Amino acid sequence: MTTAHSSRVPTLDRLRVGSAPDSWGVWFPDDPLQVPWQRFLDEVAEAGYEWIELGPHGYLPTDPAVLRAETGRRGLRVSAGTVFTSLHRGPAVWDDTWAHVSQVAALTAETGARHLVVIPSFWRDDRTAEMIEPAELTADQWRELASGTERLAARVRDTYGLEIAVHPHADTHIDTEANVTRFLDATDPDLVNLCLDTGHYAYCGGDSVRLIETYGERIGYLHLKQVDPEVLADVVAGGVPFGPAVGRGVMCEPPRGVPELEPVLLAAQGLGVELFAIVEQDMYPCPPDQPLPIATRTRRFLRSCGA
Q1: Domain Xylose isomerase-like TIM barrel spans what residues (predicted)?
Q2: What's the pTM?
């Protein structure tokens, strides 16, 4: 018999829920503060997830046969790889960018995944807060960013059969609602889609539901996370860079933060297309026993939302 409560839970059958190394405190290919990759794979499966991302290139095995064997025997599949780019810097960075992207894209395609998440480079150092370059792009740099992203998307698609999803991110040039919409309006919708990270967008003052409702046809991928509004207020007031902000716990376990994920999930379901919804709770560094209980509770929470 269906209870009154369960009858109100929507069926979000177009969302493919997964998690990522980020949710285990993994930011680098190799770091003594991070759990070994075997433990990550064991625990992400134990927490109830089927899909994972590759994380920083070199953290998981880069031999495709080994990677497929290790994920397959745990019942896991790969949804995407991730790259960092500095395409606003123009043609001078293209060769180095493609060398990095092609390495990650090749491995991603070998796993059977069809998405490549593209994160813009930071304008200030993630650890020291040193300014790397101005926080705002010039008009010429915006043009280079748009044209370079389109060029990258076309080549990744034609060479590896992958679709790129550009990830707005704190402390990058694609961050606030104004900058995200400027980027979307400047790029070809047939080539360039967005990875909407609910936590980063909230961190930068954006409304994820409104973005989905306004630019739904451009949302190609989702990262699910929340921010702690009290910690965020202190971070913003103090001009704290993203890395130390994470250390302060600015990204928190759902449903303790913002944005509310239920409306975001409903809006994403309403797009009528299949979307990956990958949990990514930034927690670098963190104690090795901390991620699994959080990941398990988060998966249970998402199931209670219908996902």
Answers
A1: 41-281
A2: 0.96
CA–CA separation, 217 vs 213, rounded Å?
9
CB 118 within 8 Å of CB 83: yes
Beta strands 193-197 and 163-166 are parallel
- Separation CA 72–CA 156 (nearest Å): 25
Q: Judging by beta carbons within 10 Å of its beta carbon (0-12, 13-18, 19+), is residue 134 exposed, middle or buried? A: exposed
**Taking the mean position of all CA atoms in its chain, how far away is CA 211?**
16
If we measure between CA atoms, which residue out of 125, 183, 124, 189 comes closest to residue 153? 189
- What's the pLDDT tens digit per position in 105-135? 999 999 999 999 999 999 998 777 889 999 9
* Count of helix runs (H) and strand runs (E) in the chain: 12, 10
Q: What is the DSSP string of 234-283?
A: HHHHHT--HHHHHHTT-EE-TTSSBS-HHHHHHHHHTT-S-EEEEE----
Nearest to 65 by CA among 36, 107, 18, 99: 107
For the segment 19-39, what is each residue's pLDDT rounded down to a tens digit?
999 999 999 999 999 999 999
DSSP letter at 35 equals P
Residue type, 235: V
d(CA 202, CA 177): 10
Going by C-alpha positions, the residue among 107, 134, 111 that lies closest to residue 123 is: 134
Question: With 70 as the cut, is the pLDDT of residue 282 above it?
Answer: yes
At residue 124, φ and ψ (nearest 5 deg) are -140, 150
Q: Which of 114, 148, 301 is nearest to 221 (CA)?
A: 114
Domain ranges of the chain: 4-304
- In CATH, what number does 4-304 get? 3.20.20.150
- Cβ–Cβ under 8 Å, residues 146 and 135: no
